[in-house]
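Per your request, structure below.
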C-alpha cells in the first residue's frame, strides 16, 4: 500500500532522514547504542520515503516487511537504499521495542547502513533540485 508523495514531500523526508542519521551518529559516539540503532532505523525509513517520493511520486504506507520491495521499484537508487532499509528493518523491533541491549557492533553497523541510505537520498534530492 502506498500513498501519493511529491517533490516537496521527498525533500522533507530527506531532511528528516538526515536529522535522524545525525542523531544516530551522535548517539553512537556517546555510547547510546539503543538510541543509535533506533535513530538509524528511522533514518533509513525516511531515506527510502525520500527516494520513492522523488522517483515514483509515492511513498510506502503499508507493513514494514514490504517496504524494501516497494523501494526497489524506484530505480538504481531505490535498489541501493532498499538493501540498507532491509537490514535496518531487520533490527527495528530489537532497536526500538525489545528490552535487550544493543551492542556497539550492531549499533555501528546500523549507523553505517543509515548513513549510506541517507547519502543516496540526498543525492536524489540534489538531482531533483537541479531539474528545471
Amino acid at each position: 500500500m502506498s500513498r501519493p508523495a511529491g517533490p516537496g514531500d521527498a525533500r522533507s523526508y530527506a531532511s528528516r532522514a538526515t536529522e535522524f542519521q545525525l542523531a544516530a551518529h551522535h548517539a553512537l559516539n556517546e555510547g547510546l547504542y539503543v538510541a543509535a540503532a533506533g535513530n538509524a532505523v528511522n533514518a533509513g525509513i525516511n531515506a527510502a520515503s525520500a527516494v520513492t517520493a522523488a522517483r515514483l511520486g509515492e511513498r510506502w504506507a503499508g507493513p514494514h516487511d514490504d517496504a524494501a520491495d516497494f523501494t526497489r521499484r524506484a530505480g538504481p537508487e531505490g535498489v541501493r537504499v532498499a538493501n540498507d532499509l532491509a537490514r535496518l528493518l531487520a533490527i527495528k523491533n530489537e532497536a526500538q521495542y525489545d528490552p535487550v541491549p544493543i551492542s556497539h557492533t550492531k549499533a555501528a553497523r546500523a549507523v553505517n547502513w543509515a548513513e549510506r541510505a541517507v547519502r543516496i537520498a540526498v543525492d536524489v534530492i540534489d538531482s531533483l533540485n537541479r531539474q528545471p
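The domain at 2-130 is CATH 1.20.120.330 (Four Helix Bundle (Hemerythrin (Met), subunit A)).

Regards,
D.
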